[in-house]
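Inverse folding, one chain.
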């Protein structure tokens, strides 16, 4: 039988005792990886692979129009792997599995934080100033961070001002919002860093960072799957190849977010802020000292009280906000990298209990007590 160069083969053989063994996948002369890429305005995938350089390994990128087209190319063998924003897979995992494909890796998010495009920072915005944001989560976060502002969606502002809001992607909407800002109708707007670079506005940008200056201060957790690129391949794809283009921190981000929020509907997903990243022990200890956080400091010690500097830790934060931004439910975890998979399971259980208890009416201590509403309404 002639073997075609560049294909991946799996050798199966039977030993004399009729025991069937499957040998690990091996690459037969595979020196070129055909990679299908899906780019979005908020997540540019192509630049992450433009400077890819692996000795004796050539990466050829092929642009794909949408997920269905890309998964069809992958299942038919036209490409070896698919790289795309993780948000495009939400709600479509059955389609991926039906095509005989699976997620084999992920890339570390480069710029997950959104930016405020305005001449002034958020705390210096004029009272009753108008800030536009497409994301419902960001609008709630801004209301929590700063009162006295009119935080609207682009569609709502267009309806109030009797204008036509563009129906295209986030880049077209951002260009329209920039025109509104230059004309003085709004003070600023929220967009991703990738879109900001593409439209090139003249105004300053102010990053909405997840780390508050003081403990309990203003912070902005990124959107779900923010700037997270996943790698999809056919089942039984050699892990030795996927590791060449995948990154450990990206795989951690994907695993936790996939376990935590992959089953949420689109309405609930818009209200969730989530952050997953690797942290060094030294930076955690410095943060704990600055904020006098004993819990964070204890997370860096083992059972004998010694500092575990030899292992990277995983920081995981998730929160949901009320419509007015006044009520927040959050869960923060700092765990060792070797334990993050088990810790994710316990975090899911704790998060479900937390949401259930905070969203139910407060029971009366005595029958004459007044009715007490729930701390947060998950339906608003």
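Residues assigned per position:
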């Amino acid at each position: 039988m002639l073997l075609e160069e560049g294909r991946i083969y799996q050798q199966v053989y039977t030993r004399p005792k009729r025991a069937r063994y499957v040998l690990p996948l091996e690459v037969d002369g595979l020196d070129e990886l055909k990679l299908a890429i899906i780019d979005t305005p908020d997540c540019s995938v192509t630049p992450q692979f433009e400077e890819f350089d692996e000795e004796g390994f050539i990466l050829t990128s092929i642009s794909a129009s949408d997920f269905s087209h890309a998964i069809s190319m992958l299942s038919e063998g036209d490409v070896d792997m698919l790289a795309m924003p993780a948000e495009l897979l939400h709600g479509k995992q059955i389609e991926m599995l039906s095509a005989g494909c699976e997620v084999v890796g992920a890339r570390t998010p480069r710029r997950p934080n959104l930016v405020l495009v305005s001449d002034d920072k958020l705390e210096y915005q004029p009272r009753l100033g108008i800030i536009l944001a497409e994301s419902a989560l960001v609008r709630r976060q801004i209301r929590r961070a700063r009162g006295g502002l009119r935080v609207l969606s682009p569609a709502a502002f267009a309806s109030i001002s009797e204008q036509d809001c563009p129906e295209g992607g986030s880049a077209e909407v951002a260009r329209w919002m920039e025109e509104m800002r230059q004309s003085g109708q709004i003070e600023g707007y929220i967009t991703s860093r990738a879109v900001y670079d593409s439209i090139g506005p003249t105004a300053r940008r102010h990053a909405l960072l997840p780390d508050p200056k003081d403990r309990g201060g203003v912070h902005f957790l990124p959107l779900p799957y923010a700037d997270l690129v996943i790698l999809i391949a056919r089942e039984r794809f050699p892990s030795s190849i996927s590791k060449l283009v995948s990154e450990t921190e990206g795989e951690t981000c994907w695993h936790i977010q996939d376990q935590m929020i992959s089953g949420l509907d689109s309405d609930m997903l818009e209200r969730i802020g989530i952050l997953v990243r690797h942290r060094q022990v030294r930076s955690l200890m410095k943060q704990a000292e600055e904020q006098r956080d004993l819990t964070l400091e204890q997370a860096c010690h083992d059972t004998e009280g010694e500092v575990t500097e030899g292992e990277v830790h995983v920081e995981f934060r998730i929160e949901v906000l009320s419509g007015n931004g006044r009520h927040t439910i959050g869960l923060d975890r700092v765990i060792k990298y070797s334990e993050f998979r088990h810790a994710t399971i316990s975090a899911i259980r704790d998060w479900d209990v937390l949401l259930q208890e905070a969203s139910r009416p407060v029971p009366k201590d005595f029958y004459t007590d007044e009715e007490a509403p729930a701390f947060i309404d998950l339906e608003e």
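The mean pLDDT is 85. The chain has 13 helices and 17 strands.
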